[in-house]
Amino acid sequence: MKKSIFTLLLVLITLNVNAQEETKQTELGFNVTGKLGFAKLNQSGMVNLNGSINAGEVLFFYRLESGTSFSVGAGMLDFNANGVSDGESYALKQTYLRIPINLNYSLFILKNQLDSKLSAYGGIGIYANNLFREEIQTIDQTFKNKNQGWNAGLGFNLGLRFGVTKDVNFGIGFESQSDITKMKKNGTERKLEEINTINFSFEFKF
Length: 206
Hints:
This protein has helices spanning 2-19, 111-114, and strands at 27-43, 49-63, 68-85, 88-108, 118-137, 142-146, 150-163, 168-179, 183-185, 188-205. By secondary structure, it is mainly beta. Mean pLDDT is 89; it is low at 17-23.
């Protein structure tokens, strides 16, 4: 099933590239993105915790004439949740350092009506993930941990991008990610699942 979907996407992309009337130019730049959403923490010895996501990243991209782009950069992600352990309530805050690598494809839509300023994009990506800092706060005390391990994840994104000026684009989109491996440290295994965010981005071209 996954192979069939992937093959279909490749065929559609190829047909669209061949059907384009305008030739795009190669582009180089960077993208600043803010993300808001929700996720689920899966950790050994605990029930799954649902919490909020607040994240941001800076990616450098290289976009080919075909609309295919490659991007790499770094970002930070905060996961906040409340839970109960042994009858005591606690607040959890985790800060992750993330290193994403993405492969995207974009195409112009309504080119004649909007003078090629509106484009749709979609793609897939992988990321390395480090739990840089963790804070657990109870009524009586606060526990702090650092460098709780590395893992990797996979995600996909889609959205719209609008040209504000020749070298600046504004984008809004949806992204879904999930860790595919678990962090393991001090006998604890954990990973973030169902990371769903709304993304707001500014793209600057050199």
